[in-house]
Amino acid sequence: LLAAYSVEHVDVRCTEASRALHANISRRLLLPAFGEETPESLTYAKVVEWHAAIGAPPPRGLGHGPEANRALAVLRASLEWGVRQGIISDPLWRNPCVRVRKFAERS
Fold first, then answer.
1. Dihedral angle computed from the Cα positions of residues 64, 39, 82 and 17, in that order, rounded to the nearest 10 degrees
2. What's the pTM value of the predicted model, to 2 decimals?
3. Backbone angles phi, psi at 37, to 5 degrees
């Protein structure tokens, strides 16, 4: 799903900077964590644990809250794209990223 989202959506509709950001996030954060998962096997608990491992302050996580939020946004968007494309076709499926609480960011 992530590869298809990248090729069919990001590469076609996004700016060069956005494509680079998506590729970096996918390569470093999404594929190692979820590359073998099917969208239907992702759960809210798995996504919360992964998000916390990136964004929570040490020793619980790496302390990269803004990056965790960006990665969550890419994962959420790719899953929503999968629904629109019919790749995720279960009518009862819910995006596990929807209610994940984001880390606070400084402006």
1. 20
2. 0.93
3. -85, 145
Q: Tell me which residue has tokens 């965790």.
A: 68
In the prediction, which pLDDT does 72 show? 98
Please report which helix (H) or strand (E) contains residue 45, including its range. helix 44-55
Could you give the CA distance from residue 65 to residue 2 in angstroms, rounded to a whole number? 22
CB 29, CB 73: distance < 8 Å? no
Q: What is the 3-state secondary structure (H, E, C) of the chain?
A: CHHHHHHHHHHHHCCHHHHHHHHHHHHHHHHHHHCCCCHHHCCHHHHHHHHHHHHCCCCCCCCCHHHHHHHHHHHHHHHHHHHHCCCCCCCCCCCCCCCCCCCCCCC
pLDDT tens, position by position, 58-104:
988 888 999 999 999 999 999 999 999 999 999 899 999 999 999 99
Q: Taking Cα atoms as reference points, which of 79, 68, 77, 81 lies closest to residue 25?
A: 68
Work out the average pLDDT over 29-37: 94
